[in-house]
Every structure is written in structure tokens, then in C-alpha cells.
Design brief:
The protein is an alpha+beta fold. Among the domains are: 131 residues, Jelly Rolls (Sandwich); 54 residues, Homeodomain-like (Arc Repressor Mutant, subunit A). It has 13 helices and 12 strands. A hairpin with a 5-residue loop joins strand 7 and strand 8. Helix 4 runs antiparallel to helix 5 and helix 7 packs across helix 8. The longest helix has 19 residues.
Length: 333
């Protein structure tokens, strides 16, 4: 579940609308996310109906919807985007068709491709963070992953457990994105960090969430030749200071993303992005020893946006935390 303080800070910094009527809600959502209609389910009360906060990272949007009064909303237009909705207070009822209905609580996230006719019913106090990803990004990533064209639309399971199930990695990554947007938005101008986050996001959505291509993706290529691994590693070492995606590495190696993953796990006992992370850790270690930059500056330079995580994996690899090595280097020890 998302942290209430992180959500509150996100709302303060990225407030886009505090609506006093459902008409204002309808207009705001329609301008940004296509046709939308909302109406009250009870006599309107004094005060705001809803509050929305919105931020974007490249083509991806994060929107927090907070409702103060009971309303029903209907999607009037299709939108070529997938929504990953994480409620952190209250519950929502979603009508998928005349006879299909699901109820979402804070125990699960909801994943769907927006289509006209979907209806949502919320009560006072419902609050929900939505990650909105263009369908073209996810569908292209899926085809790269399976190494083939998608023969039918990508369809996710509508409800996913956020605690022990496959939804937990999604919630963890989105929490990290919110933290960066709240406390260090400037680091998202760093192309390595931004590429790493977007790469991780696409991978988590395709590889973690249940959907109709999971069995196809898991079957994948059993293995590819070690030379493909070497080609990918050579490319990573030559370009580790630049944004690198799994899609790019698979193209360099001459195989599907899934095939490359399998090959690295067979020959390196780790995925290609984990190997890239180690290459960048080596570069960060060299910078700590030989430059006057701070540990934070070096971490960001090499694409590590979570400083606590950076310190942990650095210490695991080199035996000491980066700040201690930096102090020793400055004192000539």
C-alpha cells in the first residue's frame, strides 16, 4: 500500500484541480484523458467534490484522484492507454459490462485498458493513484519480450494483490517514483536515471503482472549462443555512461529480450540489466576513488536514484559503503 505521507506531499506539490462540482471533474478529466462524465450519487454537500494531482515522466502520467463525496463516473471514449490504479483509502466499484462488476480495495490494484462504457462508483474518502501508460509503449515492449508480433490485444488480469502477489513490485516502484517527484524532481532530468526507471517500469508491468501472454513470455527461447551475451556485454561496457534499455541490448545481441534474459541467466547467473548495474557500480567505485565529486553526485551520474539502495549494493560488491571509501580516499588511506 502507498504511504499516506508520500501521497500527501505529492498532492501538495502537483495539485492540478480542486473541484467544487462534478461538472468541473468531468471537464478536467475530459481535457486530459478523453471523454468522461461524473455525477453525484447524493445531495451535494458544501466543500470540494474531488481533488486531483498530476505529474508526468516522459509519456507516463501519475494522477492521484481523491473523492470527498459519493459519485459515479462513466468513460465516454476509448483511450489508447493502460491504467494501473492503486487505491490507498476506501474502495471503488467498477462495472465492466452489464453483468460484470469488480470491487477494488486497498488490498489490490486494478489494471485495465480504458474503454468507453466503463463505470466507476466511489464513496466519500476514496483515494486512488493511477499510473497511465500509453498502450504503444507496453505493446511494443511485449513484442520485444516474446520476440514475435502480438496476435491478440494485451489483456491484464483486472485485480492483482498488492501485498504478497505480483502487484508488490509495481507498488514499490511507483512509491520510488513518487519519492523522487516529491524530493528530487531534478534528478529525473538525468537521462540515465530516467531511462533506468522507465526500463524498470516496463519490465515490471510485463514480467510481474498477470496477463494473457504470460505463458508465451515464460516459454521464450531456451537459450541463445554465448556470443550474444558477449556482444551485449561489450556494448554495455562501451556505452555504460549512456541510457541503455533491454530492447537495445537484445537488438545488439541479435535475439529477443526473453532469449537474452535466458542466456544471461545461463551464462552469467544474472539478468542483463543486473550485469549493467554491476558495470556502473565499478564505474562509480572508480569515481569515488579518483574524483572530488560527492557520493550523491556519483550515484546520480551512474543512474542510481535510490541512495539507500545504492549504498547497500555497493557495500555488497566492494565490502565497504561508498561514504567510507570516499573518506579513506580523501585522507590517502
Amino acid at each position: 500500500m502507498l504511504n499516506a505521507e508520500i501521497i500527501g506531499e505529492f498532492e501538495r506539490q502537483y495539485l492540478s484541480l480542486e473541484a467544487n462540482s462534478t461538472e468541473e471533474v468531468s471537464q478536467w478529466v475530459s481535457r486530459r484523458h478523453k471523454g468522461f462524465r461524473s455525477f453525484p450519487l447524493e445531495k451535494p454537500q458544501p466543500g470540494p467534490v474531488a481533488r486531483f494531482a498530476r505529474a508526468t515522466v516522459d509519456e507516463v502520467s501519475l494522477v492521484n484522484f481523491r473523492w470527498f463525496q459519493a459519485c459515479q463516473s462513466e468513460l465516454l471514449d476509448d483511450m489508447n492507454a493502460y491504467f494501473v490504479c492503486i487505491p490507498h483509502a476506501g474502495k471503488m466499484k467498477m462495472q465492466l459490462g452489464q453483468k460484470t462488476e469488480i470491487v477494488q480495495t486497498t488490498e489490490n490494484l486494478r489494471v485495465f485498458k480504458r474503454q468507453a462504457g466503463l463505470k466507476n462508483t466511489v464513496g466519500p474518502g476514496f483515494s486512488n493513484l493511477s499510473l497511465i501508460v500509453p498502450a504503444s509503449l507496453l505493446e511494443k515492449r511485449l513484442e520485444n519480450w516474446i520476440g514475435d508480433r502480438a496476435k491478440e490485444p494485451l489483456d491484464f488480469s483486472p485485480l492483482v494483490d498488492v501485498n504478497n502477489g505480483s502487484g508488490a513490485p509495481v507498488v514499490s516502484l511507483i512509491s520510488h517514483m513518487l519519492t523522487l517527484l516529491n524530493s528530487a524532481p531534478g534528478c529525473l532530468d538525468n537521462e540515465l536515471i530516467k531511462t533506468n526507471i522507465m526500463e524498470h517500469l516496463m519490465s515490471v508491468l510485463i514480467e510481474s503482472l498477470p496477463h494473457n501472454y504470460r505463458e508465451t513470455a515464460q516459454a521464450g527461447s531456451a537459450d541463445v549462443l554465448p556470443k550474444s551475451v558477449r556482444r551485449a556485454e561489450d556494448y554495455m561496457r562501451a556505452h555504460c555512461d549512456q541510457p541503455i534499455t533491454l530492447t537495445k541490448l537484445a537488438r545488439v545481441a541479435g535475439c529477443s529480450e526473453r532469449g537474452l534474459q535466458n542466456a544471461f541467466k545461463t551464462h552469467r547467473q544474472a539478468g542483463p540489466m543486473a550485469v549493467l548495474r554491476d558495470i556502473r557500480l565499478e564505474a562509480a567505485h572508480s569515481d569515488i576513488l579518483h574524483t572530488e565529486c560527492t557520493v550523491t553526485e556519483i550515484a546520480f551520474k551512474w543512474g542510481f536514484s535510490n541512495l539507500g539502495r545504492f549504498s547497500k549494493i555497493f557495500a555488497e560488491k566492494f565490502g565497504e559503503c561508498p561514504s567510507r571509501i570516499a573518506r579513506s580516499a580523501k585522507h590517502g588511506a
